[in-house]
């Protein structure tokens, strides 16, 4: 843990004085966060290759646990993403990142691509409940009170069939409801800082219009938040 604190502190020092936006990418283990990050970082990087490379890095003990990448966008300029694992060991360390860093936005990723993720069984209810609790906790953390939040449902849409698409949308809406989205959207102070999005994180790139639209939304929301703080 001390090594992790030191690494984050050193990285923070190297970023001091820059105009780069800082994002946290969080979620439970297996939500697709690492694939999401490296699909954004490296154009054409395939999901299977990301997974294989991460396995190799762990085997040779070169994986620090979290991942950090610097990116750029015509919409917001320079920005950085910290992707932190969501297993039982790393979740208690999440606060270390947003207490050492000024986090402008959080991407909370939820698995909606696994073949069994929509099964109505005890394990899925447990996972969704854990994800919901983590999301609500983050939304009310003092250090993140002016951070923009995107709840990302990581899907695997593979068909254009209208009936199938309608079924998928119903399943996605059910997941959003179980994650407490209707309750969040009713909170007055969340209207300018919370959005829900549906993305195929294994089929995204930094140049994708969907990603650029998310960054545009982020910038608009941040301006609104800053204006509320100043008023």
From TrEMBL:
This is ADP-ribosylation factor. Pfam families: Arf. It comes from the Eukaryota. It comes from Cladocopium goreaui. Coiled coil: none annotated. GO terms for molecular function: GTP binding; GTPase activity; metal ion binding. Keywords: GTP-binding, Magnesium, Metal-binding, Nucleotide-binding. Transmembrane segments: none annotated. GTP binds at residues 27-34, 86. Mg(2+) binds at residue 34. PANTHER family: ADP RIBOSYLATION FACTOR-RELATED (PTHR11711).
């Amino acid at each position: 843990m001390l090594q992790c604190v030191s690494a984050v502190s050193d990285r923070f020092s190297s970023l001091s004085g820059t105009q780069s936006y800082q994002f946290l990418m969080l979620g439970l283990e297996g939500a697709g966060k690492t694939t999401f990050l490296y699909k954004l970082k490296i154009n054409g990087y395939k999901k299977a290759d990301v997974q294989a490379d991460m396995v190799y890095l762990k085997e040779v003990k070169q994986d620090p646990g979290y991942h950090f990448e610097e990116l750029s966008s015509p919409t917001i300029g320079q920005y950085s993403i910290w992707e932190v694992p969501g297993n039982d060991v790393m979740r208690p360390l999440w606060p270390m990142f947003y207490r050492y860093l000024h986090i402008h936005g959080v991407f909370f990723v939820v698995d909606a691509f696994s073949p069994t993720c929509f099964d109505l069984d005890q394990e899925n209810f447990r996972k969704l409940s854990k994800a919901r609790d983590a999301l609500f906790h983050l939304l009310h953390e003092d250090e993140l009170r002016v951070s923009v939040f995107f709840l990302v449902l990581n899907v695997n849409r593979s068909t254009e069939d209208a009936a199938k698409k309608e079924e998928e949308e119903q399943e996605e809406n059910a997941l959003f409801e179980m994650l407490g989205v209707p309750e969040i959207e009713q909170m007055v102070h969340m209207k300018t800082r919370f959005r829900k999005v549906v993305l195929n994180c294994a089929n995204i790139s930094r140049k994708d219009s969907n990603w650029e639209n998310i960054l545009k939304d982020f910038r608009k929301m941040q301006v609104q938040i800053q204006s509320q703080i100043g008023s």
